[in-house]
Amino acid sequence: MRENLSNYSVVLEGVSKNYGDQQILKQVDLQLEQGKFYTLLGPSGCGKTTILNLIAGFTEASEGVIYLNNQRVNEVPANQRQVNTVFQNYSLFPHLNVYDNVAFGLAIQGRPKAEIQKEVDQALAMVELSGFQKRPIEALSGGQQQRVAIARAIVNKPDVLLLDEPFSALDMKLRKAMQVELRELQQSLGITFVFVTHDQEEALAMSDWIFVMEAGRIVQSGLPTDIYDEPVNRYVAEFIGESNILPATMVADYEVNFAGQTFACSDAGIPAGESVEVVIRPEDLQVTEPGQGVVDATVETVLFRGVFNELIAVDAQDYRWKVHTTARVEPEDFIGLNIGPHDIHVMRFNESEEAFDARIEQYSVGGESDE
């Protein structure tokens, strides 16, 4: 029946969560391998934090089974699970200094003082806070408080570390620095991290594997590159990065018609004549001289984004193309746009509920790519 799950830190099988008549999670299945960095990505209210709370034992599943290290834990209380959580607001004790905050969990276990000091010093060194032991919490910056929260979580050597949007209170520069530090920490510790965010750039930068969620369901999971390059539907394409999404018609294998002409593409197996949508990322459009690309368009606006210019260009079919380019282009310039076959991703969108459920099942299991 159930396969050997000894290589997985966390497994959810058919897990649902209801609050009264409201269903927050709907038949969620996922498997998290040991020692990887996983991200639950989606908008507020999609069920990300509910999954963390179920894994941690802060709430009970309405349906389904939860396994930690191959052991069913549905009835196991939170304090008996080898799981620690870093909360969005850090939940530090303001009346305790840095050392006592980190040592708290070890102290209530009755561990010897010398052992506690050794473990606390090691944890603080890992988060680059050596020498901060006596600092009051109120004297720390937001980034330092976040490091203390992580040190308090890892000092108990959990099998799984859950992080619920821990960077939300940090400014952009500090967020990016902490992304690097947290990723390096996870790799050095070799434990399973489950990270919750609504920030797609954060998810793409840090994760081994991403679960994209919508309305209590996992709609796609995969490597960051797969999620970005091969979105399964419009929701994922729009949520992950920026996209040009156009209505289209499949002409034949490797041929699709949109924007008034037929283009070569890399998709096959879709019946000729079926209505589809195509996704083209702004950075995959190359600016050329007029007539040298596959589409000609007039530049409407140019926004400088630092490392690239963002253009809106209107073609003869009145479609507004979003383009990211390093080319020097001015408003009202007439340009060509080139699109390669591998830059056009075809999505089917008129699927039945049964087909949707089958696709959800296909994309619900974490691990190595099948390709």
From TrEMBL:
| Residues in ABC transporter domain copies | 10-240
Q: Domain of life, per the record?
A: Bacteria
Against SMART domains, the record matches this protein to: AAA
UniProtKB keywords: ATP-binding, Nucleotide-binding, Translocase, Transport
Which InterPro entries did the record assign? AAA+_ATPase, ABC_SmlMolc_Importer, ABC_transporter-like_ATP-bd, ABC_transporter-like_CS, Mo/tungstate-bd_C_term_dom, P-loop_NTPase
Pfam families linked to this entry: ABC_tran (PF00005)
Molecular function per GO: ATP binding; ATP hydrolysis activity
User: DNA damage as a keyword?
Assistant: no
Q: Name one GO cellular component term.
A: protein-containing complex
Name of this chain's protein: Spermidine/putrescine ABC transporter ATP-binding protein
Species, as recorded: Suicoccus acidiformans
Traced from the root, the source organism's taxonomic lineage reads: Bacteria, Bacillati, Bacillota, Bacilli, Lactobacillales
